[in-house]
Amino acid sequence: MDAFRLWRWGAAVIYKGIQYIVTATAEPDVWHWRFEIGDTVKSGSTQTRLAALAARRVQSKIDAALKARASPSNEQDNA
Q: Alpha-carbon distance 41 to 51, whole Å?
């Protein structure tokens, strides 16, 4: 099965150990996405024609969430 069909029907994909899902919507060129890191669930939508670009945008969001989680909090910096 090709990647487009997997994304279209919402098959889970793993990126950097984080499972995410991208699904097509009834609205053309709009994709819903969802991933979970620890107890935090992030979800949203993105507008693009290409399923691969929608997936890449989710991967960028995962990168940002992992970076934010790895950095020390402001409270620790001020202590």
A: 21
Per-residue pLDDT of the chain (79 residues; tens, 9 = 90+): 344 444 455 678 899 999 999 999 999 999 999 999 988 999 999 999 998 999 999 999 999 999 998 887 655 555 5
Q: Left (φ > 0), alpha (ψ -120 to 50) or beta: where does 59 sit?
A: alpha
